[in-house]
Structure formats: structure tokens, C-alpha cells
């Protein structure tokens, strides 16, 4: 637990000083190991990537237990800090979110994403007060277990909120301010894409802001100039991998050749080495 606490403090520090934190998001042990070997100082998990790999659609359709099992495998497999995407906390109540925060810590992660999307079309967003209570509870759990989880409070109001884009931006900024007051370490406004929107959020919401890398989002260097402290890629790498599998399938069916299959693929020996650390840890734990 001491080591986990040290990782959590180190991860928090990455948001406050030094270069902008760029997070790759893993969905299994091999992807996590590849990102670690590439030199990322920390990694996040992708809830969508993990869910899809286990046969579930995105949107909190996977159970807490199944999600946390994968998070634990990833956290055991790398030596760098891991932050877990736990969607909306796997339950409606503050107590449910408390259980999820406990599971995040027991899995070995040092941070979590918590979103305010309800997954219900008729009422797509939790009210601000509900999210405040959940964020505060995560802080209490983290304090009691002496692992200062880094909370990345996500809002989906820019894509699911009511009114025009101007009203949704005002709502996002208001939520960001309240989430930060409640104890969130970082604010994650999904749907912030253009420089003007990103810049306005960074200026108005004190503290680190996380931007999701997506189509039309400025490159890392420009985001850094805008004052963004953290960038993540979400399910992008997992979906890109599915795109490669699709190209392999099409080429094999249509031309009977193996170009996409072979280009850039690690050998079996290299793939095995990606998971050797995990298997050694499993053997050690008996």
C-alpha cells in the first residue's frame, strides 16, 4: 500500500508540474506493456476498449467485477501509475461509487475517471449535487485507505446537454468549477474539440484540464500552448486495432495476401515477452 500511495502522489504531481501529461489508454496487458515500453509515464484504462474486448457494448453494460479484474491485471503488469476508467461508478448511489473506489484501490490503480452520464436517454446527465456527493465520497474512501486517488471528473454536458453550444459550454464550465471544489483533481470535458472552447474551459476552470484526443482536436503541442495539462486517447487505440483486424480480414478474403497481417506485427516470442512480467507475478502470488 505504501508503494501504491507513492505512485498516487507521483501521478498527482504529473498534473501539476513539468511537461503536459499524455496518457495512452490500455485495454489489456499487452497493450499496457507496449505503452509502458514506449516511455509513457503513466497509463489509463479504457472502459470501452475493455468492454468491447469482453463482448459488451460501451455504456456501463459490463459489470464492476469484470471491469476491475482487467484493471487489476493491467496494474500488476506495469510499474508505472495506472488510472482506471470506471464510467459512472457502476451504480446509481453514492454507496455504489464508494464500493467502486475501494475496488479501484484494491486493483492497484491510483486514479479514476468518473463521468456524469446516466446512460438514460430521457435524463442523460446526473445533477451537479449528485456528482459532488460522489466525488466527495471517493475522497473519503481514498483518505481512509491512505491511497490518494487522483479523480478525473468527466462531464458529458457538451455532447448530451440541453440548449445551444454556448449554453452547454457555460454548463460545462459551471460543472467543472463545482467538481473541482468537491475535490476532483482534474476536469475532463468530453466534446471539447476546437481551440476556442478548450481555451475558454482552461481559463475558467482552475486546475488541470484533460482533453480527449479525437478527430479535429488540435495536436499535443497546440493543446499544451492552450494550457491543457492532460491528454488521453480513450478507446481510440482499441478501435484502431479493430480497424487493423478488419483490413487483415478484407485483404485475406479478397486477395489472399498477408500484407496487413505481417506488417508491424511482433513475433510470437516478442508477444510472449509482453506478458512475462504478469505471469511471473501470478506465479509469485501463488
Task: Please give a structural write-up.
The protein is built from 13 helices and eight strands. The chain has 286 residues and is α/β, with parallel strands linked by helices. The protein has a single domain, classed as Alpha-Beta Barrel (TIM Barrel). Helix 6 links the parallel strand 4 and strand 5. The chain is globular. The two termini are 19 Å apart. The C terminus is likely disordered.
Keywords:
286 residues; alpha/beta; TIM Barrel; eight-stranded parallel sheet; 13 helices; 8 strands; 12% strand; globular; disordered C terminus
What would CATH call the homologous superfamily? Phosphoenolpyruvate-binding domains
| Helix-strand category | alpha/beta
If you consult CATH, what is the topology?
A: TIM Barrel
Oligomeric description of these chains: single chain
Annotation, overall tally of beta strands = 8
Major sheet description: 8 strands, parallel
> Would you identify the regions where 5 or more consecutive residues have pLDDT less than 50?
282-286
Distance between the termini: 19 Å
- The residue fraction in helices comes out at 40-55%
Averaged pLDDT, please? 96
Amino acid at each position: 500500500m505504501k508503494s501504491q500511495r507513492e505512485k498516487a502522489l507521483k501521478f498527482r504531481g504529473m498534473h501539476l508540474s513539468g511537461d503536459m501529461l499524455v496518457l495512452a489508454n490500455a485495454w489489456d496487458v499487452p497493450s499496457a506493456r507496449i505503452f509502458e515500453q514506449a516511455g509513457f509515464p503513466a497509463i489509463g484504462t479504457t472502459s470501452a476498449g475493455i468492454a468491447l474486448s469482453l463482448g459488451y457494448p460501451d455504456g456501463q453494460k459490463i459489470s464492476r467485477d469484470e471491469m476491475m479484474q482487467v484493471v487489476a491485471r493491467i496494474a500488476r503488469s506495469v510499474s508505472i501509475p495506472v488510472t482506471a476508467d470506471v464510467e459512472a461508478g457502476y451504480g446509481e448511489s453514492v454507496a455504489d461509487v464508494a464500493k467502486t473506489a475501494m475496488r479501484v484501490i484494491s486493483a492497484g490503480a491510483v486514479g479514476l475517471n468518473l463521468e456524469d452520464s446516466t446512460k438514460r436517454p430521457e435524463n442523460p446527465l446526473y445533477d451537479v449535487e449528485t456528482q459532488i456527493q460522489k466525488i466527495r465520497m471517493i475522497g473519503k474512501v481514498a483518505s481512509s485507505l491512505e491511497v490518494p486517488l487522483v479523480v478525473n471528473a468527466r462531464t458529458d454536458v457538451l455532447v448530451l446537454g440541453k440548449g445551444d453550444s454556448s449554453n452547454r459550454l457555460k454548463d460545462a464550465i459551471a460543472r467543472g468549477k463545482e467538481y473541482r471544489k468537491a475535490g476532483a483533481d482534474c476536469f475532463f470535458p468530453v466534446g471539447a474539440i476546437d481551440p476556442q472552447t478548450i481555451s475558454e474551459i482552461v481559463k475558467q476552470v482552475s486546475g488541470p484540464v484533460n482533453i480527449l484526443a479525437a478527430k479535429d482536436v488540435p495536436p499535443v503541442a497546440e493543446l499544451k500552448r492552450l494550457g491543457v495539462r492532460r491528454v488521453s486517447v480513450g478507446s481510440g487505440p482499441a478501435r484502431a486495432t479493430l480497424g487493423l483486424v478488419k483490413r487483415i480480414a478484407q485483404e485475406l478474403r479478397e486477395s489472399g495476401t498477408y500484407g496487413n497481417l505481417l506488417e508491424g506485427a511482433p513475433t510470437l516470442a516478442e508477444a510472449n515477452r509482453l506478458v512475462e512480467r504478469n505471469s511471473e507475478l501470478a506465479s509469485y502470488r501463488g
